Amino acid sequence: MKKLDLDVLSMLVAVADSGSFIAGAEQVHRSPSALSMQIKALETALGKPLFIRTTRNLALTPEGHTLLGYARQMLALRDEAWAEMVRPEVRGRVRIGMPDDYASSLLPPVLRKFSITYPRVEIQVIGRPSHELASQIKDNSLDLACITRTKGCPGEFIRLEPMVWTGSSASRPVWKERPLPIAVFSEGSVARANAIEALQNARIAYRMSYESPSIQGLLSMVDAGLAIAPLARCSVPAHLIPLGPSDGLPSLAGLEMVLARSAQSAKSPCDFLAELIFQELKQ
After folding, report:
1. Angle at CA 9, nearest 5°, toward 108 and 68?
2. Tens digits of pLDDT across the chain (283 residues)
3. DSSP letter string, 224-279
4. Residue 3: is it exposed, middle or buried by C-beta count within 10 angstroms (0-12/13-18/19+)?
5. Burial degree of 12 (CB within 10 A; 0-12, 13-18, 19+)
6. N or C, which end of the chain has less CB nearby within 10 Å?
C-alpha cells in the first residue's frame, strides 16, 4: 500500500467514531476480520500503529489521531466533489427526531455527510424518547424520525440494534448485587420494558436506582458505580463494559430501529436525507 486509499480511510474513521472494530465494520458494511486486515495493512505500510488494542478498550495512538484528521478532510472533499458534480442544488429544511441513545453515536456521521452534500439544507434535530417522537410524526411536528418501532407509528425497518447491560470496570461489580440496581429510561421506553421483562423472566430481583428520559443521566449512574443500565450497544461509551449471561445477567432483546415519516415529508430534502440514513445505517 503506497497511497492512502479512501475506502481504508473510511474504515479508520468508522472504527475511531464507534470505538470498536465490530461496530466500525457494521458502519462500512464489511466483516470485522476484513476491516481489521485493511487497518493492519495500512499500519504496516505506514510503519506505525494507529490503534492501541487492549482486551476491553480501543484507542488511537498519536499518529492515529493525526491521520484521522487528514482522513476526515479527504473524505469530506471527496463527498463535496461528488455532490458538486452529480447532485442538483437542494434547498429547504428538514426536522428530524432521534432518541439520545441513537443520536449520540449513529446520527453525527450521517448529518456530517449530509451537510457536506447539501450545504443549503437546514437541519433541525429533536432529541426525545421514541414514543414522544412518534406522536410528533403523527401531528407533523417532525418530518423524519429514527426511532425504536412504536405501536401505532409505521416506519421502514433500518436495523436491529443489539441491547447490552452496561457497567463500569472502575468500580465494584454492582451487577452481582441483589436486588440488582438498574438505571433505566422513563416509562414508555422499549429498552426499559425489555430489561424489566428479561429480569422478571430470569427471576432476578432488582431495584430502580435511577430513571431518566436522557442517556446522560443513566451513564452518570453507571460511571459512579451505582447501577448498571440496559442500553443499545451503539450507545455504550468505550470506557464502559458490556455485560451479559457470563456475568449472571439475562440476554436482552434487540431494538428494532425504523425510519418514520410524517404526511408532509414528501419533499426532496427529506427524500435525500432518508436515502442517506438507509445507506449509512441499514444492516
Report:
1. 65
2. 457 899 999 999 999 988 889 888 988 889 999 999 999 999 999 999 999 987 677 889 999 999 999 999 999 888 878 877 776 678 899 999 999 889 888 998 899 889 888 888 999 999 999 999 999 999 999 999 999 998 889 999 999 999 999 999 888 899 999 999 999 999 999 999 999 999 999 999 999 999 998 899 999 999 999 999 999 999 999 899 999 999 999 999 999 999 999 999 999 999 999 999 999 898 6
3. TTS-BEEEEGGG--TTSEEE-GGGT----PPEEEEEEE-TT--SHHHHHHHHHHHH
4. exposed
5. buried
6. C
Phi-psi sector, 175: left (phi>0), alpha (psi -120 to 50), beta:
alpha
Asked whether the beta carbons of 50 and 59 are under 8 A apart, the reply is no
Distances from the Cα of 60 to the Cα of 37, 72, 134, 184, angstroms: 17, 15, 38, 31
CA–CA distance, 67 with 61 (Å, rounded to integer): 10
* Residue linked to cell 441491547: 163
Helix (H) or strand (E) holding 55: none
Q: DSSP H helical segments within 30-171, as ranges?
A: 32-46, 62-86, 100-103, 107-117, 130-138
Strand pairing class (156-161; 255-261): antiparallel
- Give how far Cα 145 sits from Cα of 8, 108, 204, 236, Å: 31, 15, 35, 21
What the block records as the C-alpha cell of 234 is 451503539
Q: What is the pTM of this model?
A: 0.72
Count of other CB atoms within 10 angstroms of residue 21: 21
